[in-house]
Amino acid sequence: MLSSGHMAGHHHHHHGGGSNYQCLPEEPQWKNHSSAGAYTGWLYGVEYYFNGDHASFFSTVNTGGRQLHLNPVPCAVCYVSQRSTSVMMPASTNCPVGWTHEYGGYVMSEHSYSGGSARHAASYICVDQELARSQREVSTREIRGFLL
Question: Rounded to two decimals, what is the model's pTM?
Answer without folding.
Answer: 0.64
